[in-house]
Amino acid sequence: MPFAPCVCIGIFLLPWFPCTWGKCIFDQVQRSIKVVSPPTGQYASAHWSLRETVSAENPASRSFKHKREQRHVESMADSQPIRIKTWIPSESPVLTESERERLMSAVNDAVNKVSNLLSVRRVTHSLLLNRDINKYCKFIWRNSSTVNHKKCGRANENYRFESCLGVIIPDEHLNGCAVYPHPEYPVPSVLRPKGMGVSETDFLLYVFTHNTDKCRAESSILAYAAHCQTDSEGRPLAGTMIICRETLSMERYTHEHFVQTVIHELFHVLGFSKDHFSRWKDCSLSYQAGIDCWSHGQVTSTDDMGQFRLYSPFVIREMQKHLNSTHTDLGAPLENKDAGSDGLSSHWEARVLQGSIMAALLVEPSLIRIDPITLAALQDTGWYSVNLSRAQSLVWGEGEGRQFGSVSTCHNSSTFFCTDSGLGCHYLHFHKGECLTDQYLDGCHIFKPLANASECWKEENERSGMDEWNGEIYGSDSRCFISNITRLNNATASTPVAGHCYRHRCTGINKYQIQVMDSDWLDCQAGKSIEVSGYQGFIFCPDNRICKYSDLLPPTSRQKANELLNASTYIESSDDDVMEKDRSTPHSSFMSRSFVTVSKAKVTVAAVLSIMAAYSLLSTGMHVYRKCLSVRVRVHAANELSYRQQMAPIQCISRK
């Protein structure tokens, strides 16, 4: 819980370290949700129709694989951005104007982002959800020889409504239901008439704002969700997201916290769920209405180390590209710490896909990426066409090879993992960090942002006194660099090696200059170290991190971000130095990593990190225990009882 007592070690005036991180328990509760699908033998009310396409090419002259690829293009040509409509039950507590604005702004921004990423073969008419026959029916005709086989023969007198994660679904959104009193007479007695449905909708999201028991249990919970209806192809059609009321008034949760929480939950309810893995399909051959998609078959299995991985076609392709591996069977690892009895999880393994929007931990919003591996998984559901060009760069582990992130290799100090304890920089270099582990890292250590005032890009984090001695500068164009410089006239002991904030500006791909207090702009050659006039010590220049990804910006205001983007696009005239826009095609000259070297009389990075670790250990006894100020986001999904036992009027807020 936020502000719970925990042990944190301060080193002189440095901020406190984070002690806990939020997690998502989606899998634990989605299993308890009764998902309703169309009645057997009937098309879903949300079924789509596809134009019959005929290739002029002789099919016999093509390979089967070529046929599938060709028809995939043809059948997905009609896909359009998914239309997610949000529906707000009127029984939600009345919100203040600021709370409502904060809620709808975050939900709308998240829905916009998801709609720009995912396309579907749209619902051709109004979306109608189905009723659960096992709820409204007391008796079903089971004799297969009767006319009314599998139809309801007697109504359940206690039937009142359908619900989705405790939210009552209005009759207007539902198909009707009827009973057939005699097995041989097809004339029904209507129990509930067919509703009007929801027009221009491909997915219906019920958004309920309430201070539920789960919200009260832990004040760090922002939201939780589950899906509850699918169409005949298994695609989710409706779900509910509970937004915890009290969090809307908490300043420590930013707009970006809410947006990324909603996106995380939306990806879960749209199909990134272990309950759906076995239902993922290849729909490339379903180019005529009524033809079923082909199952991918078993897409999850263990690798030679016992790690469960997701082996679906687009995921394998993107993993090969990301890790720069030609291994033909390189699946994406699933988290092992929150896995159920089946060994599966609906989250990526944190050691390998740290920073992904679908990792089990949601952390500082500026460090989360809507990554290509996650979007590839949504493509492999068979329900969506995904715009992979909109994926954000996943810096963690890029180009590191097939074995990256394994427990057997992560304990060696590298450009992504660290050893023991010490101070340094988070791998995106927006934050100062400490070498820590957590329950999802299996003992591996990484540099995590300090809990308080670790952001180099925040001017307000600048402090007097110590900053002047080590030359730190905070601001929107500042990044974290490992350094031990101190002014020559500093009479105190030498500065320990740690992460420090200095200004930077790009001059090309993986090329940049830095500036410390009272210095000129200095070339900082990636993979090397530099000295600064007027200071003693060294600054180490990270390789393949800074000025390589055009979509990595700190979460400053739009104006500042635009100014930074313009400033960082100053490129030398050589064609080889043009900053690339496409995260999937890094410049060939930067594919291999250079070892970090140090010029004469300079210590190596490995030695520096050792000194840093030793210094941290010696400092432990010198400082007091503090309460941990870190706040992280917990994302949950849970099944709850209906909040009202009677139908209530509702209002609709739509997004096309």
From TrEMBL:
Cleavable signal peptide: 1-22
Keyword Methyltransferase tagged: no
Residue stretches spanning the membrane: 603-625
Keyword list, A-Z: Hydrolase, Membrane, Metal-binding, Metalloprotease, Protease, Signal, Transmembrane, Transmembrane helix, Zinc
Cofactors, names only: Zn(2+)
Pfam assignment, any one: Peptidase_M8
UniProt keyword Repeat present: no
Protein name as it appears in the record: Leishmanolysin-like peptidase
